[in-house]
Amino acid sequence: MKSYRIPFNKPSFAGAEGRYIAEAIERGHISGDGHFTKACHRLLEEALGVKKVLLTTNCTHALEMCAFLTHCGPDDEVIVPSFAFVTSVLAFSLRGTKPIFADVRPDTLNLDERQVERLVTKRTKAIVALHYAGVSCEMDTLLDIGRRHGVPVVEDNAHGLFGKYRGRWMGTLGVLGTQSFHETKNFTCGEGGALLVNDPSLVERAEILREKGTNRSRFLRGLVHKYTWVDQGSSWLPSDILAAFLLAQLEARDTIQDRRRVIWQRYERELSNWAAERLITLPHVPDHCEQPYHMFYVLLADTAQRERLISHLEDRGILAVFHYLPLNLSDMGRRYGGTDGQCPVSEDVSSRILRLPFFNKLTDDEQGEVIAACHEFRG
Ligand SMILES: Cc1ncc(COP(=O)(O)O)c(C=O)c1O
């Protein structure tokens, strides 16, 4: 694999990770739901005002729990954006549920709330609001559609922890929200995730699903004498060692977010004229959204220009990447009836988007090099 002087992502350490991991080992509890898992739960519940947070092995598994909790099954449907991460959809299709692809908004690249209602049928079991780049979907409209049709809205908030929509925390607005702590996210433990359970009536079943279909959580609270198999489920708890790593990152959230804000705002400030002169678009953040500065992307004029910018940066040792091929056009998406031209905005942006290097410890000099390289790009 090629190595780059300035990678696209690099895991960053907050400082206390090693000490906390050593403490988890000393405590003699390294399986799930130990001291550090509970500390992460408490921190997130208090910071976000969430009824129940459950750490999971990754965001994909938290989404799989959402599929169970919204009773998605064969012959049911789930409305998803076509410009999405595979598992935002796979978590539901795994249960036999058919993805119904909706297009995204050209400004925020989020599920276009204006297209959702016409896709609702009596089989719709959930609407997945993926907050792309940590900028919120239009949740008031989506929640209103959900309420009127009795369909729960699930927030895929993998990018959006500590972001806000109209002053309210993202991930806390739908019945369920999911987080990712993958290495590429603002806060990481390598691989990890969380389920935010906002509807109190779902808490007990969420605990059972995550604990291998057993009522072990009730047993641990002294509510039942023995624990046993009571429902479907799997084993979705991370080790307390990972939770120890994660706690160090979550405790450093103000420092991490301050640094990411500085990086994001510098990209925007120093690239806006460059972009305007070349018909390149920078991210749009509506006034009522507070983003957690998860990524910085540019939308090039066309695919050829994107290819030229990628190789221009590569020649200078800088890695820029793009993602999300439209899921309606993927092999699996087509098996679910996806067709060319079904989601034109998604198909268009996915051919033009490019993400610039962005990680907590990106230095001023490194970022300066990326920006200078962009300025040298003639288009
Ligand atoms: C929007 C979105 N949802 C879900 C996921 C899956 O996260 P994880 O790798 O924690 O399973 C990702 C991963 O990057 C993502 O970007």
Molecular structure report:
- Helix 1 (17-27) runs antiparallel to helix 8 (240-251), helix 2 packs parallel to helix 8 and helix 3 runs parallel beside helix 4 (86-93).
- The mean pLDDT is 97.
- The protein contains 13 helices and twelve strands.
- It is of the alpha/beta class.
- 38% of the residues lie in helices and 13% in strands.
- The two termini are 27 Å apart.
- The longest helix is centred in the last third of the chain and has 25 residues, at 253-277.
- The protein has helices at residues 17-27, 35-48, 59-69, 86-93, 139-149, 203-210, 216-220, 240-251, 253-277, 303-315, 331-335, 344-350, 364-376, and strands at residues 52-56, 77-81, 98-102, 124-130, 153-156, 164-165, 168-169, 176-180, 193-197, 289-290, 297-299, 353-355.
- It is globular, with a radius of gyration of 21 Å.
- Strands 1-9-8-5-4-2-3 form a seven-stranded mixed beta sheet, sandwiched between helices. A three-stranded antiparallel beta sheet has the order 7-6-10, with no helix packed on it. A two-stranded antiparallel ribbon has the order 11-12.
- Bound molecules: pyridoxal-5'-phosphate.
- Residues 58-60, 85, 87-88, 130, 156, 158-159, 180, 182, 193 line the site of pyridoxal-5'-phosphate.
